[in-house]
Amino acid sequence: MKIALLTRNPKLYSHQRIMETAIGRGHEIVPIDYLKCYMNITSRKPELRHMGEKLEGFDAVIPRIAASHTFYGLAVLRQFEMMGVYPLNESVAIGRSRDKLRCLQILARDGVGLPVTAFANETSRTEEILKMVGGAPVVVKLLEGTQGIGVVLGETHKSAKSVIEAFRGADINILVQEFVAEADGRDIRAFIVGRKIVAAMERKGPEGEFRSNLHRGGSAVMVDLTAAEKTTALKAAQSMGLNVAGVDLLRSKRGPVVMEVNSSPGLEGIEAASTKDVAKAMIEFLEKNAKPGRTKTRGKG
What we know:
Elements: E1 2-6, H1 13-24, E2 28-32, E3 37-40, E4 47-50, E5 53-54, E6 60-63, H2 70-82, E7 86-87, H3 91-98, H4 100-109, E8 117-118, H5 126-132, E9 138-142, E10 151-154, H6 157-169, E11 174-178, E12 186-193, E13 196-204, E14 219-222, H7 227-240, E15 244-252, E16 255-262, H8 268-274, H9 278-289
Parallel strand pairs: 1-2, 1-6, 6-7
Antiparallel strand pairs: 3-4, 4-5, 8-11, 9-10, 9-11, 12-13, 12-15, 13-14, 15-16
Helix pairs in contact: 1-9, 2-3
């Protein structure tokens, strides 16, 4: 099988593991910088080129698109899909998960547990928004933030109001969510491939930090998921239409709630904490599913 790996940095741990595993299983895998791709959007004859070379003969594509380049990266992925190349994650599904507001709305529609979340345009409704999510402390999130960047804890009513009004005054879109105090700075990452949870870890932020992201100094250990957590994580990935997903959960008093669904989850932390070969599960999924003519879009864009 010939696989395209869409990445700007093939030297990252996750991408090295994917390439080593694919090669070790007898496949050819080609790292492609999607920002250096350009395309011919012609009826019935879609064409994609990378630095002067025509991209053809691929059986599957693994998109590892940075959040900051989602728009162009998904355009390149869609072109692969138009050419009949099987995507590990489809462009529509990635687009859903990258739009935080849309993601939460879809999850809410499908009955997936979520923290109480508010979204508004007018700062004149700040008091009402804070009341809606249960009052301070609250978590304020930028819609475009990743890896814990752009996430602020408003510990008091006054500070929360100031943060919300500052962001909206700068015309920055934000979500306001209830603060799940009982999570105690911990969250759970469930790594899903296909319809299975292949690994899970519990992450904890450093002392005094409510964010548990490993990129921000957090630590991770293997964790056993409850039946409710497994069901919630699988349902969240299915709602997005993702074949591969990192679903982030909090343990709240009312059961597991989903914080985020990541369409390009990192492998380093989860493989170290769980001792599971996640890269192998990803390549095995392609081996079973990357057949000619099986490229499709789940639902509407």
